[in-house]
């Protein structure tokens, strides 16, 4: 059942990503709608997978890389659907859904067995800490995608390449706005994830902060996004500069999530 | 029944001629009544806009009907037919259908894709419907033309891009700012194109307009016209940070906005993007401004380039639209030819005959002790009944002196007895807008 739901999700996302990429390149407006409905279908199956996994494991299914990547992807798709509902920008899917697919493919490459939960992790904090962290990550991922769209659109405007992709991309102001909203959504989540993590660490390992690589890099990520938001509010970092910083932040965030787990041994390197 | 079109347009006649034969929209009753009173003409619609004057009509006699329409157009306006004739075009049958579908879809317009023409034809049809000069054929014909136009509008992008410099500037601004309702326009200098662009921005609804000029009095004058705020030219740099969209066309021989000033300007507006439109020749704005982050500079050449691309795009879209028109012509003709009397009578008779024969065969096969010769007599009897029943409708249909009522009967018969027609499923559509 688990494998079936997971693979179905994977297949639907693959189709969705293909539909959205064709939409990006070909002047066929109806594909945007098709993509949206397929995404919704994929999202529901994906929710089904997550729920099923929760029932089978008996705890929040975000304990190894397979599960966390899947949940990361689910969050990205969920936020994308909310944004699409609010802004009606089909082309957002052309950037977000391939990313969601990529995360799922990486997830598929890790072991899918449900591991016995480390007793130290058995806590209500598991749900709070992980869900907040991944929702935050997903918001940053969307901000990353939108920032890339911003750079492309800005480049089109500067170089007067006003083709069909230019027409499909929304205005710079809207892209800037979505990116900013995602950051203001993701940043508090990251903050609470770090705080809840510290509290949980105190109960599980007996210390709030142990400079474990994950903790260190989370703090670095937090500072980057804090700087970006601060710059935006005070001196008005916006447009290209903000877009590039958001992309940089996402790369660091990815390292915090994946790089630390795979490369740097520590308390968080669950595999 | 044939559809004919006679008229002239911007393609065949100059405005001096067009205005002579135009019909006033307030007095449509008289010409429409006069048209249907003409011998050979059964239905008529007059379309009169500033770019075209056309009469759509139905007739049994194509050549005679067209001649009468031409004569009518000249006589009604007391204009010599000899002079008018060379500006007139006339179409019938498939060509007439194509012409009207193309006109309604704005493929025959001066600016291809402009949306007004459809509304104008709808209004013209409204008069014809009001004064009952259009009947079943022109009703269906024009509704079909409207639905073709609608298909063209939704299935192609014929009207979706800006084809004037001023509109192109507005479209670009929307791609930078999205909403323009909270944006401010600064107009530097004066000039026709610049003022036109400013008007377009005001029309789509910007928050405010500032105007500056080397001579403050001229700025004040222009500001009054636009309901804008005049600004001293010397204070340009003071006001620049407040402007999101800058339209510049001064007669200055050198740049008035330099790249080096932009850092300070952007800092003061917290890096919010700026859109510069330089319409002046020689240019007012240093082209290097475009390299500054969050500054977008377009010159008149860039905008002309956008317009040229859009016109190219419209040509491609127009080709798609022509294909749609061709498709719809075929469908409409299927229906129109179904209104011909003779095939309808044939179809009606064979429909009745089939029923008669089937019922007869059923009765006879169950009848055991049938006397000799009865079979023949039964056949003759049923045949006679059928002929009696069909006699009056058939002879009525064959009469040619009842104008558009005939088409109505044919159409009704086809529906009542479920005889094959071109577009059975497609009922009459309501007039929109």
Any overview of this molecule?
The complex is a heterodimer of chains A (271) and B (433). With 271 residues, chain A is mostly helical. Chain A has two domains: 1-117; 122-271, no CATH class. Helix content of chain A is 79%, strand content 0%. Chain A contains nine helices and no strands. Chain A has helices at 2-25, 30-57, 65-87, 91-108, 125-159, 164-168, 172-205, 213-234, 240-263. In chain A, helix 2 (30-57) packs antiparallel against helix 3 (65-87), helix 5 (125-159) packs antiparallel against helix 7 (172-205) and helix 5 (125-159) packs across helix 9. The model of chain A has no long low-confidence stretch (mean pLDDT 90). With 433 residues, chain B is α/β, with parallel strands linked by helices. Helix content of chain B is 54%, strand content 14%. Chain B has helices at residues 15-18, 29-37, 62-76, 81-85, 93-104, 116-130, 136-155, 165-177, 192-204, 216-226, 236-239, 259-268, 300-338, 341-366, 374-398, 405-416, and strands at residues 2-9, 41-48, 52-59, 89-92, 184-189, 208-213, 229-232, 245-249, 274-278, 295-299. In chain B, strand 8 (245-249), helix 12 and strand 9 (274-278) form a beta-alpha-beta unit. In chain B, helix 5 packs across helix 13 (300-338) and helix 14 runs antiparallel to helix 15 (374-398). The A-B interface holds A 27, 153, 157-158, 160, 162, 166, 169-174, 235-241 and B 157, 172, 174-179, 267, 269-273, 290-291, 293-294, 296, 298, 302, 305-306, 309.
């Amino acid at each position: 059942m688990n494998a079936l739901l997971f693979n179905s999700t994977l297949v639907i996302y693959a189709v969705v990503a293909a539909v959205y990429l064709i939409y990006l390149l070909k002047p066929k407006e109806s594909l945007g709608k098709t993509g949206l409905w397929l995404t919704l279908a994929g999202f529901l199956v994906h929710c089904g997978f997550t729920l099923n996994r929760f029932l089978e494991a008996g705890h929040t299914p975000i304990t190894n890389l397979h599960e966390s990547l899947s949940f990361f992807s689910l969050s990205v798709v969920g936020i994308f659907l909310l944004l699409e509902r609010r802004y009606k920008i089909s082309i957002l899917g052309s950037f977000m859904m391939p990313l969601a697919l990529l995360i799922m493919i990486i997830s598929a490459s890790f072991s899918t067995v449900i591991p016995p939960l480390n007793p130290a992790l058995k806590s209500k904090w598991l749900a709070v800490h992980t869900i907040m962290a991944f929702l935050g990550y997903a918001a940053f991922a969307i901000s990353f995608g939108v920032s890339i769209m911003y750079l492309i659109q800005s480049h089109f405007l500067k170089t007067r390449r006003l083709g069909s992709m230019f027409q499909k991309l929304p205005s710079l102001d809207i892209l800037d706005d979505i990116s900013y909203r995602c950051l203001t959504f993701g940043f508090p989540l990251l903050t609470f994830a770090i705080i809840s993590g510290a509290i949980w660490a105190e109960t599980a390992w007996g210390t709030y902060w142990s400079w474990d690589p994950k903790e260190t890099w989370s703090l670095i990520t937090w500072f980057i996004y804090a700087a970006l938001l601060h710059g935006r509010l005070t001196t008005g970092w916006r447009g290209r500069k903000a877009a590039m910083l958001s992309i940089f932040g996402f790369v660091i965030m990815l390292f915090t999530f994946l790089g630390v787990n795979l490369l740097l041994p520590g308390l968080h390197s669950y595999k | 029944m044939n559809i004919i079109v006679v008229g002239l347009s911007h393609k065949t006649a100059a405005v001096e001629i067009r205005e002579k034969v135009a019909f006033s929209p307030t007095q449509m009753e008289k010409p429409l009544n006069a048209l249907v009173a003409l011998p050979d003409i059964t239905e008529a619609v007059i379309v009169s806009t500033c770019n075209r004057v056309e009469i759509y009509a139905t007739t049994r006699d194509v050549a005679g009907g067209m001649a009468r329409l031409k004569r009518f157009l000249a006589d009604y306006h007391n204009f010599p037919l000899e002079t008018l004739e060379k500006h007139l075009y006339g179409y019938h049958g498939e060509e007439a259908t194509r012409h009207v579908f193309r006109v309604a879809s704005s493929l025959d317009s001066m600016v291809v894709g402009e949306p007004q023409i459809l509304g104008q034809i709808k209004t013209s049809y409204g008069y014809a419907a009001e004064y009952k000069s259009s009947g079943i054929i022109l009703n269906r014909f024009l509704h079909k033309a409207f639905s073709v136009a609608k298909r063209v509008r939704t299935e192609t992008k014929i009207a979706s891009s800006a084809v004037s410099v001023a509109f192109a500037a507005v479209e670009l601004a929307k791609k930078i700012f999205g909403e323009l309702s909270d944006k401010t326009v600064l107009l530097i200098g004066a000039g026709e194109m610049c003022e036109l662009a400013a008007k377009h921005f005001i029309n789509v609804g910007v928050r405010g307009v500032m105007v500056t000029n080397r001579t403050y009095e001229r700025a004040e004058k222009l500001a009054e016209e636009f309901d804008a705020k005049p600004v001293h030219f010397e204070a340009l740099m003071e006001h620049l940070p407040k402007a999101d969209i800058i339209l510049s066309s001064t007669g200055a021989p050198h740049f008035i906005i330099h790249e080096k000033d932009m850092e300070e300007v952007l800092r003061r507006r917290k890096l919010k993007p700026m859109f510069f439109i330089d319409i002046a020749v020689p240019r007012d704005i240093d082209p290097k401004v475009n390299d500054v982050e969050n500054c977008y500079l377009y010159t008149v050449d860039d905008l002309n380039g956008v317009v040229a691309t859009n016109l190219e795009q419209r040509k491609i879209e127009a080709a798609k639209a022509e294909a749609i028109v061709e498709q719809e012509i075929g469908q409409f003709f299927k229906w129109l030819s179904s209104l011909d009397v003779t095939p309808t009578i044939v179809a009606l008779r064979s429909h009745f005959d089939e029923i008669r024969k089937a019922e007869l065969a059923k009765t006879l096969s169950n009848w055991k002790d049938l006397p000799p010769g009865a079979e023949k007599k039964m056949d003759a009897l049923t045949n006679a009944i059928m002929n009696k029943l069909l006699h009056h409708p058939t002879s009525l249909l064959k009469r040619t002196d009842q104008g558009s009522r005939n088409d109505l009967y044919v159409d009704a018969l086809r529906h009542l007895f479920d005889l094959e027609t071109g577009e059975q499923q497609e009922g009459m559509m309501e007039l929109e807008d």
